[in-house]
Amino acid sequence: RVPCLDLGKLGDSDEEDGDSCIPHSRSYCHTCPLDSSSRWRTSLQSPYAQNQHAQQHSFLEQKTIPENLPSPTEKYKVKYQQYEAEMKERYKLYSQRIAEKKKEHSQCQEASRRGTHLEDSQNEDMAALDEKAPIQQGYTSKPYNMQHSIKKSEAEDVAAERRKQIVVEQVMVDQLSRAVISDPEQSIRADTDQASHGLPGLGTAPLRFRKRTLHETKVKTKLGLTENMLSNKLRFDSRIISRNGRDACRELIGFFFAYDTSITVYEFRQFGKNRTNALPFIQKGIYHHQQGQKKGKAYVLSDFYIGANLTFRSVDHNLPESVKRNPILTLRVTSIDEAAMDFLKASSMELEQEFNKQETDDNKVFTKIQGMLRETISKRGVRVITGLGKYFRQLDKSKNGFLSQADFKEALKLFHLEVPEGDFESVWLILDHSKTDQVDYGEFIHAVVGEMNEYRKAFVRKAYMKLDFNKTGSVSMIDIRKCYCAKKHPLVLAGKATEEEIKSSFLETLGDSCSNPNEVSYCEFEDYYEGLSVGIVNDDEFVNILRNLWGI
After folding, report:
1. Has keyword Repeat (predicted)?
2. Of the candidates 238, 228, 223, 219, which has an alpha carbon nearest to the alpha carbon of residue 172?
3. What whole-number distance in Å separates Cα of residue 368 and Cα of residue 370?
């Protein structure tokens, strides 16, 4: 408080004498002009002064309400009630949004705790692939938008079912379009009759010069098909096992007909949004195994299951040149029609899938080696699998995918993968189908390290097909940088890392596994996620990574 002086009694006082300046009566006010710079600010900081000032300010601003104000009409009462209800509803929605944001924030914090073990080693060891690759696993516990994901999955299922129906209709049209009257068997009887009547040269004449009367036409031929015969079929989806991205992403739909155990495979193509086409990839016929323990045996119903390999001779079919480079065409079954399988099993003698003793022993050998290496690979899966693939591609000078036994032993030693000599020899005897002392290095990696299931690989292929929209078989690193999305990464949401840091970490890890640092092939893209998949047990968590990154 500042003392307020009585200026009337200070006229004869000495200014230098401090005691003479003291007034006879003192009063306290808040608007003293003395020392307006410091003491005035001090007075404002007092709670009592602030309260008094607020009361005076509110009293001055208070509006006068007239006494004879009429009561509001019913119209305005209804409007006020509507306004009150609307405000309550808005506040309710606002509270719900706040609760959802708090829940989402808590989930992000929980997910980010998984990546906290990486922060301690990001100072100097951030450049190591073994530490950068697991950063991508932060997406596992957070789908990018569950409701959007469900709607998108339903739309994709409807589109896939429509594609399959188009192929089924095309197969039925192709097999039933040849009428009985135009069957080649009809001409065989006419040629025989002409030869028996001594008409030389007519049997070898062109078909347009031959004559066949109505009485010489058969009502039914041996090769004639009916819709009922073709209805007992098993539909399956398949893919080509190839390191060529364009061939590996071909959409193949096959059929196994139970009436004669024949097989046909069609390729579905889509041009733009509305134009589609389904063409035969493997012509209808009875085929036999070309590799493995069942080599030479015809395909039966029990040979079709998810993960099964179907082998064909490339020279027997009109295939693209990139596919014909390998003498054996291998198709992997990715899905089957379960309802049709159950029906065909119930109506046939094959009640269960047949596995001979040799196949069981082979699987035991693979499982044993994969079990020994699981702990080692789980810690550095991306670096081992991508490194093996890159190393083998550099050794493969002939570009046929086959390497010698010495090359594989050197690779295992280089990447510190210890496999006993006896187990290595067992694997080699299983994989060396042709006994040429050379094995496909893709099969060797899958036998020793393991392989993703077809459910995971379907999403990897879908992501690559989105990147490779021109179907060239390779994607530039610039396009990958443009399509990569790190907005939903837990470390980004928690403010512990930027989008550019997460993106650079991924691109550096992926680029290190590529032969050409400016582009990524399909096999390199698949090897990366093959290594990342080793450390993720749950399929849905692995799919969440691809959904968040690529928006599939």
Report:
1. yes
2. 228
3. 6
**Phi/psi of residue 285, nearest 5 degrees:** 180, 175
Q: Which one, of 141, 134, 142, lies nearest residue 115 by Cα?
A: 134
- What separation in angstroms does the CA of 277 have from each of 171, 231, 267? 12, 22, 8
Phi, psi of 423 (to 5 degrees): -70, -35
Total Cβ atoms within 10 A of residue 313:
12
What is the residue whose two structure tokens read 């046909």? 264
User: pLDDT, tens digit, for every residue of 187-212?
Assistant: 665 445 444 444 444 445 555 555 65
- Helix 357-379 to helix 441-449 angle (10° resolution) is 80
pLDDT exceeds cutoff 90 at 119: no
Torsion, Cα 147 148 149 150, to 10 degrees, reads: 50
Q: Which helix (H) or strand (E) holds 458?
A: helix 454-467
Burial environment of residue 256 by CB neighbours within 10 A (0 to 12, 13 to 18, 19 or more): buried
The string of pLDDT tens digits covering residues 381-404 is 888 898 899 999 888 888 888 888
HEC string of 221-237?
CCCCCCHHHHHCEEEEE
| Run of H or E residues at 440 | strand 438-440
Mind listing the domains of the chain with CATH numbers? 227-349 (2.30.29.170), 359-550 (1.10.238.10)
Which of these, 506, 502, 280, lies nearest to 382 by C-alpha position? 506
The strand pairing partners of 439, in sequence order, are 403
DSSP H helices, 125-256, are 129-132, 146-176, 184-196, 227-231, 245-248
Backbone angles phi, psi at 551, to 5 degrees: 65, 40
CA nearest to 234, candidates 110, 345, 107: 345
Beta bridge partners of 263: 256, 285
- Cα separation, 91 vs 84, in Å, equals 11
What would the two tokens of residue 99 be? Answer: 């609760």
Q: How far apart are CA 283 and CA 262, in angstroms?
A: 10
Q: Using CA atoms, how far apart are residues 101 and 105, in angstroms rounded to an integer?
A: 6
Over residues 417-473, the pLDDT tens digits come to 888 888 899 989 888 877 888 888 888 999 888 888 999 999 999 999 889 888 888
Count the helices and strands in the chain (H runs, E runs).
Answer: 22, 12
The bridge status of strand 262-271 relative to strand 438-440 is unpaired
The candidate with the shortest Cα–Cα distance to 448, out of 470, 424, 464, is 424
In terms of DSSP H, where are the helices of 476-516?
477-483, 490-493, 499-512
**Residue written as token pair 């022993």:** 361
Strand, helix or coil at 61? helix
pLDDT of 351 reads: 42
Q: Closest by alpha carbon to 244, among 509, 56, 477, 522?
A: 522
> How far is the C-alpha of 97 from the C-alpha of 106, rounded, in Å?
14
Written as six digits, the tokens of 133 are 């690759």
Is residue 396 within 8 A of residue 441, CB to CB? The reply is yes
